[in-house]
Amino acid sequence: MNSFTTMRRDFEARWSAAAPRERLIARLTVALVGLLLLWLIALAPAWTTLRRAPGEIDRLDRELQQMRAMAQQTQALRQAVPVSAEQSITALRAATARLGPAAELTIAGTQAQLRLRGVSGAALSSWIGEARQGARARPQEVELQNGPQGYSGRMTLLLPAAAGN
C-alpha cells in the first residue's frame, strides 16, 4: 500500500469516530477556508482591478488626446509651406527682438545660436513656437537652467537649408 491510501484510511476512520458536532465544525472550517481562498485568489484581485479601472481609463484617454494633438501638430508642420533662409533668419530675429536685451541671437551659416539671460518661461515658450513655425528652425542642442530670474543658457537651432525643408 502506498502512503496516500494509508492516510486516506486513517482519515476515514477518524471521521467516522468523530462526533456529529466535530464533523460540523470541520465542514464549516473547510468551507470558510475555501471561501477565504476564493476571495484571495479570484475575487479580491478582480475587485481591485474594477475599482482602479475608471481612473486608469481617464489617464489613458488623456494620453491618447495628447498624442492625437501632437500628431496634428506634426501633420501641420509637414504641410507647412517651406521658407527661404532669408525669411527664416528674419523671423528668428523678430522673435528674438521681442525677448529684449536678455536674448542674443548669432547666426552662422545654417545654424543659429540663442543665448539667454533670465528669460521667463512664457516668453521662451512663445519664442520656441515662433522659431519652429515662423522660421521653420529645429532645435539641435539645448542647455538651459531655470533660475530665480528665469531661464538662462543657450540653444542651437538648424535653419531650413540644413533641416532639409
Fraction of residues in H or I helices: 55-70%
The gyration radius over C-alpha positions equals 35 Å
Structural class based on helices, strands and sheet pairing: alpha+beta
Tell me the β content. 15-25%
Span between termini: 86 Å
CATH architecture grouping of the largest domain: 2-Layer Sandwich
SSE string = HHHEEHEEH
Largest sheet descriptor:
4 strands, antiparallel
Report the mean per-residue pLDDT as an integer: 90
Which overall shape is indicated by the principal axes computed on the Cα atoms? rod-shaped
* CATH C-level category of the largest domain: Alpha Beta
Task: Offer a few descriptive terms.
single chain, 165 residues, alpha+beta, Gyrase A, domain 2, 2 domains, 4-stranded antiparallel beta sheet, 5 helices, 4 strands
Quick recap of the structure?
The protein has 165 residues and is of the alpha+beta class. The relative contact order is 0.09.
Describe the structure.
The chain is an alpha+beta fold and 165 residues long. It contains five helices and four strands. It has helices spanning 3-17, 20-79, 85-99, 121-133, 160-163; strands at residues 103-108, 111-119, 138-147, 150-158. Helix 3 packs antiparallel against helix 4 (121-133). This is General secretion pathway protein GspM. Pfam families: T2SSM.
Per-chain topology:
Elements: H1 3-17, H2 20-79, H3 85-99, E1 103-108, E2 111-119, H4 121-133, E3 138-147, E4 150-158, H5 160-163
Antiparallel strand pairs: 1-2, 2-4, 3-4
Helix pairs in contact: 3-4
